[in-house]
Design brief:
- The chain is mainly beta and 462 residues long.
- It has one domain: Porin (Beta Barrel), CATH 2.40.160.
- A hairpin with a 2-residue loop joins strand 2 and strand 3.
Amino acid sequence: MNKQRVVFVMAVILIVGSARAQVSDNAEEGTDPSPVAAQNPGPFDKQPCPTPKIQHLRPTNQCGVNMFEPPKEETPQIPFTGLKIDWGVAFSQTFQSLKHDNTALPNIVNGVNTNQLAIIGPGFNLAGANLYLNSQIADGTRLALTVYLSSRHHNEVWVKDGYILMDKSPIKLGLLHGLPALLWEKYITVKVGHFEINYGDEHFRRTDNGMGMYDPFIGNYLLDSFTTEIGGEVYLRASGILAMGSITGGEIKGNVLSPQSRSPAFITKLGYDRQVTPNLRVRLTGSNYTIRKSPANTLYSGDRAGSPYFYVLENSQATATAQAFSGTVNPGFSYRVMAFQVNPFVKYRGLEFFGVLEHASGRTASETEDRTWTQQGGEAVYRFAGDHLFVGARYDRAQGRLANIVNELSVNRTQFGAGWFLNRHLLLKSEYVIQSYKNYPATDIRNGGQFQGWMFDAVLAF
């Protein structure tokens, strides 16, 4: 039923969007712009993007929507005039009105039924806040730092990442001078440090704690492949072709202990991203993440912010911090992982489609055989009124096996979203979410579990 509903809504979005785009084009052809209109813009007129201060930087405001890797080519180009420092913030406040239920059998521990769901009702959740520091330290070279000031999972101030990105050779002598330096400037990007790994494209659209500006929905995908690791990435970009190779330590933090249990992680991405016509953009990428062994890999558990769905399918003893990932699916691949993700993205005028096809296998250190999880997800979004307004629908399904459950499980999530950019820096959005759990054992709190209801979010970013 959920799948039929979301397919229907996606079809309506596409049909209405096509009609709206046709009307918009006809109106523009017959419009005679006047100085009066320019001096008195309407509430839905497109606003110019602020001029960036830092080179090759994805804007934290609305101008960063549908941007993936940081731009290699800049319009307008930003000249280097010396050391520059730029601060930014992102703030997100959600209001939750969800209800949940399950059919799990009672499980009494010390006189408490651990399968008794927490009683939840409408209310405000803990706000998320990010702090950004970007510094232009040389021509084509910038330093980036992200700090979580407030998050569900970590109540204390927490550094998310810090890295150097180089779009030009920092060395003007020897082998990196002359033609190699010119080729670097035109085609190559190098990132070194502790950074958000570039596996898949979903991590570019997801809500990252206080940064919900890029996401047309409030909750992320079920299998949330998002983490930070220490290492380096090298990109080659030319004529719409993207190739990336990366080697990292395979853990969310540095570690020199248990060398017999560690190996590097290898990440690759190959894709095509092209503005085919002024109205049509097409992007298709495939990514691979491989690590042979690790004491604590976090590819699917690296989100230190936590889920926006507070207490759903959690018991009456749960706390917001200890059970920070309510509603997400963690396959538990902490020792070994091999994952593949394919992401199509098509944007035609105001209509856009983004998809996730994922296959991952791995295990914990105590297991003897790998387990498998797969994910299929897609979303259709229509943006109109000068990109101030949007509506969208997403369907996501994840299925696989957990370490302590023999049979295959599945989780389905349907989201209907709408949003309003009041300006480039302020977004109001809402979502109706429906999520259900299938084939969980009768003794598991998620047996027959489901939750649904409304979410509202206000996002401020600059």
